[in-house]
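User: I'm preparing a small set of examples for a lab meeting where we compare how different chains pack in three dimensions. I only have the primary sequence for this one, and I'd like the structure in token form so I can line it up with the others. Please keep the answer compact; I'll paste it straight into my notes.
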Amino acid sequence: MLATKKFSIEDYHRLIELGFFKEGDRIELIRGELVEMAAKGKRHVVCCRNLLQQLFRVIGSRALIQCQDPIELPNLSEPEPDFAIVRMREDNYLTTHPQPEDIFLVIEIADSSLQFDREVKLPVYAEAGIENVWIFNLIGDRLETYTQPYLMSSGTFEYRNIQIFLPEDTVALPRFEDLQLELSRIFPNRPTTNKP
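Assistant: Understood. Below is the structure token output for the 196-residue chain.
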């Protein structure tokens, strides 16, 4: 059986510099493998837009908000989560993408990508020591928050603490407990049909 080529983060950056990927390609590096990102449906786009507005409104200048930009993890991974809330840094991340010690919160918005986000990306985040991950689950209309990454006896990584918040709830931002998000302003409303 042939071994799969694993790319380092440096290899991946070199491919980008060489123009290996076409404009519009949506690729992430996950555990050394190039993974095509799922297409975004309308509810994903609306949720992303709503969340961007609310994050900027509540966070202001207390941290940086990244939207679908790379973060650099030590396990041959450079995912592009929907959002990352990161600390301000003097070099403005010109020398390297945000790394685990820079990251306050990673947020994924999941519809068609829900299984991939839970089964592939969450363990990657946990292994990298990302303390707080949120998944806006658009299939179940709920926010899932994950904290306390740990190594299981099987050798895989998971989160010990999982909480569920509903669209009518308010949730505090990790590391900024005085900042609250009203989830009703973020979740896209499902269209209703008018009966005659």
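A couple of notes for your slides: Helices lie at 9-17, 42-59, 114-127. The CA atoms of residues 1 and 183 lie 48 Å apart.

User: Perfect, thanks.
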